[in-house]
Fold each of these.
Amino acid sequence: MAPKRRILSGMRPTGRFHLGNYFGAAKNWVELQNGGDYECFYMVADYHGLTTQPHARDFEDDLFDLAGDILAVGIDPAKSVFYLQSSVPEVAELFLLFSMVTPYGWVQRTPTFKEKARQQPDNVNFGLFAYPVLQAADILLVKGGFVPVGGDQDAHVEMARETARRFNRVYKPIFPEPKSLSTETPRILGTDGRQKMSKSLGNVVGVTDPPEVIRKQVLSMVTDTKRVYKSQPGHPRSCNVDSLYKVFFPNDWQHYWDLCRKAQIGCHEKKQILAERIVETFEPFRERRSDLTRKEIQQVLEAGSRQAREVAVETVREARSAVGLLPPLI
Ligand code: TRP
């Protein structure tokens, strides 16, 4: 029987954490872990990293940075299984078995593939195409029934669900049908005020970065482009800085909104106040982060991978048997 309330989620190792990663996913991971209603599996998706960067060495530092940040914001290895995707290579076998029940048309329609293919026209590899099949294998390898992710991942979770359904129908019902658990967060745009916050676009505000870096990033934010002078009333409705006020000043954002509307506060000043608030809010994360050595991070991932692997070996054995393969002869 599949465990009832198991969660799996992952992040690609693309560098240090930013506000988008935190509010879009990790904050929710921590809350779900601490709520105690689910058994949580979280991982760093380094195999997925290879779809965009062919040399894993090139993102090894990012991998440890990301894992350290995830631990610093509150993922606790005593409560969650936190592991490295490529240290549980059984996922590759499940990926292979899933590829046989995944219609070509499903993958072809994935919106993220089309977008990535446009972004890296010189490296449109098969792994990139098959990305959601591997993601389905990630989730179902541990029989994850719930997947806390940002809205941009909904299409992938939906495909994992269809994959589970199809495998269960064609072979044997051994997998849960995963659902996404989305966070109710305001959309956080990058410092350019136009695009999603993303490391590759260089428009991020960090979480565990040093205060001076955070200040610089926040002060570079594009605000209300219609407002030229401080003496003019601002338009908080269309200002990304204001969206962040709602997050960081849940009780007094209205006050700042009014000041802005009445031209009693300038954009620069609003950003200075916001920067200090962000620096202060994340102070405990920054401290915990600076205490973690690379060796400790690696030890946590090792222990987590060992736990995840026990589950994975069992799932793959079951899946092989459902498909009708002989057990490995040697
Ligand atoms: N595709 C996800 C992202 O880009 C990362 C990921 C890989 C993932 N495997 C997963 C997320 C499994 C949830 C479940 O953010």
Note: The chain has a mean pLDDT of 94.
Amino acid sequence: MNQIQNLFSLENKTAIVTGANTGLGQGICVALAAAGAHVFGVARRSCDETLEKVKEVGGEFTEIIADLSDLSAIDSIIKEVSAKADRIDILVNNAGIIKRCDAIDVTMEDWDAVTDLNEKLVFFLSQAVAKQWIADGKGGKIINIASMLSFQGGIRVPAYAASKSAVAGMTKALANEWAQYNINVNAIAPGYMATNNTTQLRNDSSRNDDVLARIPAGRWGTPEDMYGAAIFLASEASAYMNGFTMAVDGGWLAR
Ligand code: NAD
């Protein structure tokens, strides 16, 4: 491996990816594992499919079952990974939910469910790993999964838009405080990707057509489209990137 290829290597690194059983999180697990990391995937449900896909690329994957709507899961996740790995090097805050509803009808319960997972958990899980990284002086990489709705308001998803704008904001806020500890905090803002998150949207033929017509690349994104950005932000290649939210959106924001 030459010096430049080395920049993108994740050999001997340990990564935690939340929401690892499906969708974009699954794609990110495959990418980081293929680049050499031992990936600990957190999910409420079995990650068997992810494990199979990681095996296909010759990678290492360990599943951690946890319900992240309960913030006490943070401590147990950190303990479980720390018992099996020398240290955590990379955290990908990917787990997220969306609830579609007219703003006028949103309940407090739904608002809390979305913002607790998409925003509060992201902050406190990041804080938990950063405490270890600041204590051992070795730094680390945090990748938050933002959204087009970190930049735009969207339609009928006000709690989601608020939470993803918060993700972009906290990515900058944490980078400002932690860059000095060699901790890179950045985010990826996926465009419109074909996963469970967008099933409802894709099943509505008029919304589906509207979305597609606005994507310069002319297609919905896929979990595989996340590979490059995830490896880049998890590796030494992005050592001088701090607080930036990178779009992987087929050109949606350029329109
Ligand atoms: P998805 O619904 O397929 O995956 C969501 C993941 O979060 C799943 O692994 C799910 O198990 C996990 N999760 C949800 N609630 C959880 C809980 N309480 N405890 C543990 N895990 C939980 O959707 P996706 O598209 O793969 O979404 C991944 C991330 O990407 C989310 O943060 C989402 O907001 C974001 N995103 C998706 C799109 C898109 O178009 N699909 C666009 C922008 C951002």
Note: The domain at 3-248 is CATH 3.40.50.720 (Rossmann fold).
